Amino acid sequence: MCVGLSAKVIKVRDDGTALVEATGARREVSAELIDDLEPGDYVMVHAGSAIARITDDDQDETDGLLEGLL
After folding, report:
1. How far apart, in whole angstroms, are the C-alpha atoms of residue 28 and residue 35?
2. Would you kindly state where each structural domain of the chain is located, as residue ranges?
């Protein structure tokens, strides 16, 4: 089973990486798969890569599901 984590983009760097924040932790991920990524966007992160842009509603739903599991 593969699990993706939703995260908010904090900063996009010129080297193809982005600083994201998820569940209170910040980490660097590859942002090469998503065009025109901007700070404030939400993304799905899997295996160290931002793999898809998601909506604010998707983010809220994912947070609710994770809280229910914890």
Report:
1. 17
2. 5-69
**CATH 3.40.50.720 describes domain 5-69:** no
Complete DSSP assignment for 8-31: EEEEE-TTSEEEEEETTEEEEEE-
DSSP 30-69: E-TTSTT--TT-EEEEETTEEEEEE-HHHHHHHHHHHHHH
Report the C-alpha gap between 27 and 55 in whole angstroms. Answer: 20
Taking only the tens place, the pLDDT of each residue in 37-65 is 999 999 999 999 999 999 877 666 666 66
Q: What average pLDDT does the structure give for the chain?
A: 87
Residue 7: DSSP 8-state: E
Confidence (pLDDT) at 36: 94
